[in-house]
Design goal:
alpha+beta; Aminopeptidase; binds coenzyme A; acyltransferase activity, transferring groups other than amino-acyl groups; Acetyltransferase (GNAT) family protein; GNAT_dom; transferase
Length: 151
């Protein structure tokens, strides 16, 4: 398939936001457009979003960050090593199961290798069964669970 991959550009903001909106829907989370818009444009500026193109159309993206700060939303402080935190990975619904997600992971693994990053992390929401099976098949293992009680 004629898939290519590149850094996101400012013109991709709408595409990335619509993908994140869909992910939030899957994960029953609240999507605040203006909040996310600023974060997306900063991530694009910092080259933290990779976009897959097919025949001139954006069909998927992966948002990552390489850092030595601990993830999980809890401040455990700094680690002695760098890791790559994946915020979002997304393929347009009608283009799923055609290798876009796999290509995004091949790409991020190449970036990690180049930058000597030894671990990739991401959160998987319990409701998102597809994401869990997709990542498990690619060698990811559950590390911790975050419990929530709504008051
Ligand atoms: C998770 C997600 C990104 C996977 O993207 P994808 O492009 O469908 O991923 P792939 O096509 O590489 O792989 C999916 C399946 O298609 C199969 N596949 C890959 N290339 C294929 C091809 N050319 N022909 C047929 N099947 C193919 C793979 O074997 C894979 O099956 P597996 O997961 O059982 O191993 C996608 O389902 C998605 O966007 N979900 C909604 C967003 C989301 O929940 N994101 C995760 C939380 S941030």
């Amino acid at each position: 398939m004629d898939l290519t991959i590149r850094n996101a550009k400012l013109q991709d903001i709408g595409f990335v936001l619509s993908g994140i909106r869909e992910i939030f829907k899957i994960e029953n989370d609240i999507f605040v457009y203006n909040e996310k818009k600023k974060l997306v444009s900063n991530a694009i500026r910092d080259k933290h979003i990779r976009v897959v193109m097919k025949g001139g159309r954006s069909v998927g993206f992966l948002w990552f960050r390489i850092s030595d700060l601990t993830p999980f939303g809890l401040d455990y402080g700094k680690w002695s090593r760098k890791y790559c935190w994946i915020s979002f990975v997304y393929a347009v619904k009608s283009y799923r199961n055609q290798g876009i997600g796999s290509l995004l992971y091949d790409d991020i693994m190449r970036i990690c290798k180049k930058r000597r990053v030894k671990q990739i992390m991401l959160d998987v929401f319990t409701v998102n069964k597809k994401s869990a099976s997709f990542h498990k098949k690619r060698g990811f293992k559950p590390l911790l669970s975050i419990y929530r009680k709504t008051l």
